[in-house]
Amino acid sequence: MQPLTLFHSEQFPIGRYADALRSASIAPQSLHSLDSLTPDGGALRVVLVDPSIVDGRSPRTLDAQTAVVGVGLAEQPSWLTDESAYFDLPEGPSEPMLLKALKHAYQFLYQKCRAETLQRQLREMSEVGIALSTERDHSALLRKILSKARELSRSDAGSLYLLDEGVLRWKLAQNDSVDVDFEERVLPITKKSRAGYVAMTGETLVIDDAYTPPVGAEYSINTSFDQENGYLTRSMLVFPMTNHAGEVIGVLQLINRKRPGTRAKLTAASVPDEVIPFDNEIVELMRSLAGQAAVAVENNLLYESIERLFEGFVTAAVTAIEQRDPTTSGHSFRVADLTVEMAKVVDFLDDGEYRNVRFSGDQIREIRYASLLHDFGKVGVREQVLVKEKKL
Questions:
Q1: How far apart are CA 257 and CA 150, in angstroms?
Q2: H or E segment to which residue 146 belongs
Q3: Of all helices (H) and strands (E), which one includes residue 168?
Q4: Using one digit for the tens of pLDDT, what is the confidence trace for 52-85?
């Protein structure tokens, strides 16, 4: 659970409840006035409001992580909104009564924040699913999968692997703190590496300290990258990308989950303070993303296969047609190449009559196919004419 801070006025007899608050791991902090209350980085907190501090003054910030407990107030403060969490106590409450109210306030805030987090995650996952399903470029799709996984989990770095005919292809690596000079590699599928272990077993690895693997673990960490780049790998989450048939088609590896608000680049010295473990909530979220990613990758590969099949059909058809007239052989391919290059030139222009004309990758392919097949209509007409002449 997130830490709970209890704010109170300087006049409130907090010492009377010191032992009870300490036993409940609640840290009291005096507050000179309500308008001095400032945001606290998302930590859950409760404000005790008594007659000495209310005086009609309202806090500058009363966010979703803050609850109010009124003590000895004649009425509810006017500055509270319908969204505010408010609990009322009589003057001089007993220790059990105060602790009960504080625990209820804390539980209310936790459940409320939890519900808001789930709603945000569902919305983000929906947006990710839509983004992945519409991406046709295979390399761009893989980059998007890894980037979204790192974004949602606040991971500093990560890698993506795909299974391909009995080997593991290391397709992509990203790192916010270190410039990665990455080159695609082919790795054997063994349990000695974390990615290989997940690919073979289909299990999810949640590692709090990569340098201290669980006792009996068959996998290990290669520390050469850390040593060469002044980096430190600490928390890791390695999980399979599984398709609808339950088959592992790839592996995602996330490294160093950063604390909320951490923006600076990580170093070996800063990792212990800025990196936290991957919790169960993130693990479940990443499993959901991995399922969507696996479907998107398979659909993308199927789309590419259909594209290659169609390309082969068009090429074969055009070649067959052109063989009828050796003098113009290659004409359709030359027209297609010329037209595609013209389209690319137009797409590149930043001024002139065509400066606003742009072509997507799909549109370039459509232009190529249309160019290749531009004579098909003429061939059909010529065949009809020849048939009629023979009949006459």
A1: 9
A2: helix 138-153
A3: strand 167-175
A4: 887 656 666 677 778 899 999 988 888 888 778 8
